[in-house]
């Protein structure tokens, strides 16, 4: 059970200090989550903290590879506008 | 006819008793402030319209994280050629930032202020922000420190802020009504949860207001920034202005929404337009009845360096700073000398201006407001107005690179300062960005030439004052109803604007336009 940060991450540092298990570290070209440490915040918080503050839709995936914050879910920008 | 220089007064007579000291000119406003506040702002380019011609500031980009989302912001954006909040080229760790500040302050001795403004929210990055402030308070004690925040986590940081060399804080407050806020903020991160909609806006508003009150209670100066979003909060901002003033904010800065589609923001992609120059000015004037207004803001980058309106950031990339040799004690000495010389110049200008106003008053000329006079200063009474020769107000654009004088070539200007001359004097209205005409060629995509862009941006202005204007733009400018004028090079801006206005009056160019006459009747 672990989340993953992918290349659309903009290295904004918002998630790193929030991670209760210190699973997130700065890396190039984008931040990374250590899958051995990540607990998805189980036992610490109701919601996984990194995905809860991340401003970039699609940058954090769950263990099934699906976006924790799907397109349009954070900005409210209609999908057809995002595609354009 | 000799006219005094006035700034920042309301265009129309105040609708209701505008309290003393709240609606004078920028200088006037400074004079009315208690001495300890005046001392805090007189050399702060972001707080004083006059200071911004002389003193420089810089931002260090140490604060990348944000705890809210605004519909006018896109966290993915990073462009070297854009000048607006949230844009940076290089993110710095606090130690690098300190090094950069010391290098810049040694190279640009006019520097008085170091601000942290993002690219995220400085108080959502408290360790990075305060580490930078702590080191600078120690190593560069003559530099003032500033912070700009969305206010969400402000209350918990007020105590720490008051410990450092920080006597100014800017809070961006776009609304005091959660229903309006829900249209501006899609979410906030609050107590380990992402909260959306009206509930999110209500929390943000509550925190902002609480933070404002706490800062004021500690004697920290608070400026409020508001982004004007037509159809969303434009009507509401007058209410915001009243409330923040009643709570003790000392300056309100209403800025236009920036919403180009290519920036990829919610507003950009959904076609939300920004205000026109006229709409912005009308709102600023409406708010000015209640509150000191700021009109010279350039909405600069979170890593801007230099005078407002210029950006010397490219001279100070980390690799260049590493190669610089800085003699810091020497730099601080030089800075003290440069600042003293500027202060002397400003003081003598102030005295000269006062003397001139006195003279005008003694001669008993009409339409000569004294900065020291009654609450309605700046605008004569109706009976006085009727005695004036009818003369409509005129907007003039000025090309300058600082120092309060006309010292920029038309073709090199990347912005113009806009002044309004009227029978009551001269006041600063704002600035308009453009593309330096001499860089020529087509601009981004639409094939519009740089000169066309400038002419469009100067719409409403009847004169453009610069140190020089080439032959080529002369014709198109005149055709657009904008008279180019290169006759006042190196003259003080306000004096030149008055002279030109008087020339227009003598030439009979200031008769009220027909529709205006009808409006008056």
From TrEMBL, chain A:
GO MF annotations, alphabetized: 4 iron, 4 sulfur cluster binding; metal ion binding
InterPro entries given in the database record: 4Fe4S_Fe-S-bd, 4Fe4S_Fe_S_CS
Cofactor: [4Fe-4S] cluster
Annotated 4Fe-4S ferredoxin-type domain residues: 1-29
PROSITE patterns: 4FE4S_FER_1 (PS00198), 4FE4S_FER_2 (PS51379)
Keyword hit for Electron transport: yes
Assigned keywords, A-Z: 4Fe-4S, Electron transport, Iron, Iron-sulfur, Metal-binding, Transport
Protein name (database record): 4Fe-4S ferredoxin-type domain-containing protein
From TrEMBL, chain B:
Spans annotated as Disordered: 362-383
Keywords: 4Fe-4S, Iron, Iron-sulfur, Lyase, Metal-binding, Nitrogen fixation, S-adenosyl-L-methionine
Single Gene Ontology MF annotation: metal ion binding
InterPro entries assigned to the protein according to its UniProt record, in alphabetical order: Aldolase_TIM (IPR013785), Di-Nase_FeMo-co_biosynth (IPR003731), DiNase_FeMo-co_biosyn_sf (IPR036105), MoaA_NifB_PqqE_Fe-S-bd_CS (IPR000385), Nase_CF_NifB (IPR005980), NifB_C (IPR034165), rSAM (IPR007197), rSAM_sf (IPR058240)
Gene3D superfamilies: Aldolase class I, Dinitrogenase iron-molybdenum cofactor biosynthesis domain
Keyword 4Fe-4S: yes
Organism: Sideroxyarcus emersonii
Signal peptide from the UniProt entry: none
Cofactor (UniProt): [4Fe-4S] cluster
NCBIfam families tied to this protein: nifB
Family of the protein in this entry: Belongs to the radical SAM superfamily. NifB family.
Keyword Lyase: yes
Low complexity composition-biased segments: 367-381
Protein name: FeMo cofactor biosynthesis protein NifB
Domain Radical SAM core: 52-301
Pathway membership: Cofactor biosynthesis; Fe-Mo cofactor biosynthesis
Coiled-coil portions: none
Summary of the function given for this chain in its UniProt record: Involved in the biosynthesis of the iron-molybdenum cofactor (FeMo-co or M-cluster) found in the dinitrogenase enzyme of the nitrogenase complex in nitrogen-fixing microorganisms. NifB catalyzes the crucial step of radical SAM-dependent carbide insertion that occurs concomitant with the insertion of a 9th sulfur and the rearrangement/coupling of two [4Fe-4S] clusters into a [8Fe-9S-C] cluster, the precursor to the M-cluster.
